[in-house]
Amino acid sequence: MAYDIFISYRREGGRELARSLKSELERRGYRVFLDFDELNDGIFDRRIMEAIDAAPIFIVLLSPHALDRCVNVDDWVRREIEYALSHDRHVVPIDPDCSFSGFPPGISEVLKKGLGQHQFSEIMFGQLFKESIDKMVCNRIEPLLQRVGRAASRDARSRHRLKLYSNADCRISIDGEERAEIKAGKMAFISLEPGEYWLEAFGTAGDTVQNIAREVVMDDRDRLEQLEFVLRTYKIGDYYHENGKEGIVFEVDATGRHGKIMAMHDLPEALAWCTDEEWNKWKDQNKMIGAIYTQDGIKNLEVVRRIPGWREKYPAFAACAELGEGWYLPSRYEMLKLFDNREILSNIVEDFGGQALKNECYWSSFEVDAYNAAFFIFGNRNFGPIKFNLYRVRPVTIF
């Protein structure tokens, strides 16, 4: 019987990996020889050699310690590898789950050189199993079979490959089943039967990006479909309207996928940083509440939230939080960012029906001392300390 692929493996630690590998390759239409399944008549030597001769591709599964016993001349894995090398088989060493730690001491130079001259294929036997098999098939198996003039079986030919690219880390789902994970700037390959599929791309954990959905039709033509996912990035001045938040971007990180936005409008009325009663209580004790973070308004809000009845006692903070999850009174640093970009922010926000920043006083969340908090005069970029006066409030949030 002719085979496409012969799998050599060490039973201790490699048996289940080899079975999974064989099953996935056969699902793609390849004819695979695995001694544990094929041999049952005791004629071990002859059948093994015949199977290696019958398969142009010789896969070596380098599970942990798979090569340790190859220092012995009569070790069977060693004999399989040496036979394949001496008979010009196309060797594909597989590094399962990136666990290969190098050749053991004492291994023959023939094996070390013979395996070392070939590119290792990394097969991940967890969540990315199918993706890594797709990559090996695309980069190694199919080109090798075509080189020897042997076509894959009809089932394999009927499958087509999606070639996917993304500019950001994302996960790929086909018809609701997660099939691949793409690293930024890398490619992934997915094999599919002819048919129609619903493909979705999602940002990885902590990466708030637009979900991308697309209908993909794989027809009966022998082709490779290439799709490129460019997940949206932002710059200062961009209009943002995602995940229930709307505003204008005033700060972004190096990737352009995370940053901060200011709200489309000032809050409808001028508000106090805290009430007169609250101000008098802390003033009399000569104590600060602890909203001392110059860079991070979220941390200042967390401080205020620990005060019983804070919504009534700290109107500017409470009104920002009323906009929804994540909105807060900006810190002193964040107010400076708004000031530095005030012209572009004001022009863009008006283009989208919002309200320009006024040349008036706005509260920050930064507490100067027991008596005063920092407000910001947009007309001349100055700070002035006070707590109980009524000033404008422009909420901000992160994305």
Model description:
Residues 37-43, 152-158, 205-211 and 220-224 have low confidence and may be disordered. This protein has 3 domains: 1-155, 3-Layer(aba) Sandwich (Rossmann fold); 158-232, Immunoglobulin-like (Sandwich), CATH 2.60.40.1120; 239-398, no CATH class. Strand 1 (5-8), helix 1 and strand 2 form a beta-alpha-beta unit. It is built from 13 helices and 21 strands. It has helices at residues 11-27, 35-38, 44-54, 76-86, 109-116, 129-147, 154-157, 276-285, 297-305, 310-313, 315-321, 332-340, 342-351, and strands at residues 5-8, 32-34, 57-61, 90-96, 121-123, 160-166, 170-174, 177-182, 187-192, 195-203, 212-218, 224-229, 239-242, 245-252, 259-262, 271-272, 361-367, 373-377, 382-386, 390-391, 396-398. The strands form 6 sheets. It has a 5-stranded parallel beta sheet with strand order 2-1-3-4-5, with helices on both faces. A 4-stranded antiparallel beta sheet has the order 8-7-10-11, with no helix packed on it. It is of the alpha/beta class and 399 residues long.
Amino-to-carboxy terminus distance: 59 Å
Q: Using DSSP, what is the number of strands?
A: 21
- SS content category: alpha/beta
What's the main sheet like? 5 strands, parallel
Average pLDDT works out at: 84
The proportion of residues in beta strands is 25-35%
Radius of gyration: 32 Å
Report strand order across the widest sheet: 2-1-3-4-5
Shape: elongated
Low-confidence stretches: 37-43, 152-158, 205-211, 220-224
Helix content: 25-40%
Q: Give the domain tally.
A: 3
How many helices in DSSP terms?
Answer: 13
